[in-house]
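Researcher: Here's my situation. A collaborator sent me these components and asked whether they could plausibly form a single complex. I don't have experimental data yet, so a predicted model of the whole assembly would be a useful starting point for our discussion.
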Amino acid sequence: MEGPVTEKKHPSITVQTRPMTKVKIKVLLKKALIYLVLIIVALGMLGPFLWLLSTALKSGHENIFSYPPKFIPESPTLGNFSRVMDAFPFWTYLMNSTIVGFFTVLLNVLFCSFAAYPLARMNFKGKNIIFILIISTMMIPFQLLMIPIYILSLDLGLKNTYAGLILPHATTAFGIFLMRQAFITIPYELDESARMDGANSFQIWWRILLPLVKPSVVTLAIFTFVMAWGDFLWPLIILDDQKMYTLPLGLNALTGLFSADWRLIAAGSVISVLPIIIFFLILQRYFIKGATSGAVKG
Amino acid sequence: MKQNVLTPYLFLLPGCVILGAFIFYPLLQAIWLSFTDYNMIVDPTFIGTENYQRLFDDDMFWKTLIQTLIYLVGVVPALIILPIFLAILVNQKLKGIGFFRSAYYIPVVTSWVVVGITWEWVYAEKGVLNYLLEVVGLVNGPVHWLTSEKTALFAVMAVTVWKGLGYYMVIYLAGLQSIPSNLYEAAEIDGANKWQQTIRITIPMLMPSIIIVTVMSSIAAMKVFEEIYIMTGGGPLNSSKTLVFYIYQEAFEKLSMGYASAAGVVLFLITLIFSIVNLKLMGRKENVA
């Protein structure tokens, strides 16, 4: 991985003899080397998925355990996908995941930016202690809380419900912090002039502040969505009705069902990963931007 | 033009209700439960520190705790160092660099279930990994990556690192882009080569990001569960069972809620120590700067 860094060793000696061509060749070589490293790493990151995809495309006649492994299917077929769709209520799971993801995002954006507003722009009693308490929740592992939350959810009748999947994650300290940082950067005169014009606090929040922090809202939405979409432990605990399964749980159940047939398991995995990959590819520039703003934790 | 006294609290209310109901109240209850015997059928009975004493004598608790720490010691340094090089690699202005950044990030957005299945298949006895290693000559004969006591935990660790690379890469990328370029220009004039520049400028300037990554990855490592559950189920012979996996089994398979809560409190205290050490480090860093 250190290729592009180390290989610039002897330029100063050679440059003097035939400057232009040598430098050009060197630049080209360096570029080629960087691309080579980039491609090798990309193969490492995507290769496992491609191998799974290749298996999903192999027909029943082909031995998927052949050794050495065959990377390209002999006669590619979509048969595994249609077979797995028959056994695997993909659309139900997709709908469950989408509902859970959508409402988790919606509530997080609302509640976090609500809570962040006074923390960023108002003075009131107990402000510091409330902020510290909120931030301290980041240090408490969910794995400690899952037992009481499970008991609480049973008491509230949340087992096997969307609310049971959504509510425990409806607000995060990370989200409040992110939104607070965003609100703080907005000049305070904006609030004041709006207040002069007779706007109340809610209107200031909705009409002035929120539109100005759209990038942070998008960041929060994306990260919350990916978190909710991939969540496994909590759904595993709170759901036992297969009709309520989200995609990860459904896929997990599928591997139990087809424990012997890797073609179908592979096809099911490919199907269930497609929505989030599409989501990512559409919004990728926000991902890269977002992670950076989220990471800078003050 | 004074705002209503209640306004700030009204804005805080919904978020605080959620955090209160699903974090603070459960936290107190978990601590309380850890001093009780509770199986979800009969009401909890207070038994003092008995759960903690039992934990202390419980070989499986120590085994899983030690395996969790091994996991942490293996995964965290890799997740601190490798993404720095990845970030440097994708921080260049080249055609198509966006594609590579996205490609490296795809494992991050993929759910653990899919990643686990994918790697189970890569690790299979007659799988791609064994084949490639055999071609290169690193192994002779297939290695049972996930089904051998010697390798299972390490095989899962490798996947954790693989999945996390892109995430931390992006954090470092932000750090890299905030380093003023005149530092490099000055170093260039002083005759420092690229490697020296990396060691003397890039790494020190990345220190804030490095601290963040250290803390985030070590807290995440303490809580490892999904990858274990999906790829090995804690086996073979508990050789890849981690603390959270043990808590999960005690709580939701054996319904020993009180005992599992005590183990959870221990987990909490360990992560708390990490967080405090981190805050101290960050505080010191700020003073220096």
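Model: Some features of this prediction you could bring to your collaborator: Residues 83-295 of chain A form a domain with the MetI-like fold fold (CATH 1.10.3720.10). Chain A is about 75% helix and 0% strand.
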